[in-house]
Amino acid sequence: MLRRWLTIAVILTAPSACDNVKWGGIDVHMQTPPTRAEASPGATAERTDSTSAPVHEAGPLLLAGTRSGDSATLVVVGDVEGDSLGAFPGDSAAHGTRDDATARVLSPGSDLVLFSGGVRVGHMKVSSTGVDSSYCVPRPTVSGVVEVVPEAAAAQRLMALPPSAAATRPYEPYHAYHHTYDQRVASLNLAAAAIRKLGAAWPTSLLDSRADIQAFQLADTDAFAATFVFRDRLAVGPPPAGAYSLFVMGMEQAGSYQQSYMAYRAVADQGKGDPRYFDHLDWNGDGTQEILLDVFGASRRWFAGLGRRGGSWVQTFQDFCGASGTGR
User: Fold this and answer.
1) Rounded CA separation 130/109 (Å)
2) DSSP readout, 123-137?
3) Fewer CB atoms inside 10 A, N or C side of the chain?
4) 194 shares its domain with 145
């Protein structure tokens, strides 16, 4: 049977949830990527000749972005390193690093394989590149023409991998999930239990402090993720004194939702870093899904991720600007 496609023309724009994208007119050219040591935030040596640096065998780049109507932009998240991702370095770490990454994203005219809700839904033909400066490290972006299966026509959040890492992955049925009454109640119950256990300040209204809730499915199990924000909002911006965020994830077990992951971050101790569920994907192809988080700080945003290790969900990576006490 011939697969039907929905073709969407894409214009250069930024997702509505972040600052305007600054299109920097980057020259796309191929050169050797830096070593991981050179690209680390603490490195001080500046590379002057790309061919003189030892070659780092980087994993495929993971990208993520949102669609709004007939437009979309994907931003580089980082190198796939198992269930983790290599932090994306800035210009202060190594000269030309962003140019390297932009070139590796694939030049205009190339393809990216698209995913949503953990399944392959289509592909994107890259037409232009740019830079998104709303993140703590300015990140390369790509835009182009998107083709998705009809079932995913309303999907807003997309993740992408280059064909070399994902071209052989089959298409699977796509389902849009919407949080249910039971999940909404369970999110409140899990948050209440966590607040009592942590001894955190109690919100005037726990319901009103729930800033985001998303439903999804992992390994045929219904799940949800919810973010609660105290004295603040789920967006980039300076937090007031005493603010904190609480992220809870629940999975259905024996007819009820049990906590599978929880993260608490108080501004006074760690700085602002409010996470929300973005999407999930088995980005390294090992048969286990990983979860990408979009995190909002006082003046910038960044990425973090969750993976399943030893039967438990744990944070497997976070951009360096999200380290405790930073929250910038």
Assistant:
1) 15
2) EEEEEEEEEETTBSS
3) N
4) no
Burial class (CB in 10 A: 0-12, 13-18, 19+), 227: buried
In a domain, 327, yes or no: no
Give me the domain span that covers residue 148. 6-166
Q: What are phi and psi of 18, to 5 degrees?
A: -140, 180
Are residue 317 and residue 203 in the same domain, yes or no? yes
Q: Are residues 53 and 195 in the same domain?
A: no
The total of other beta-carbon atoms located within 10 Å of residue 173's CB is 8
Q: Measured in whole angstroms, how far is the alpha carbon of residue 68 from the centre of its chain?
A: 17
State the residue for tokens 């319901």. Answer: 207
Q: Are 86 and 41 in contact (CB under 8 A)?
A: no
pLDDT tens per residue, range 89-131? 654 554 456 666 667 667 888 889 999 999 999 999 888 988 9
CB 212 within 8 A of CB 189: no
H-helix or E-strand spanning residue 99? helix 97-105
How many domains does the chain divide into?
Answer: 2
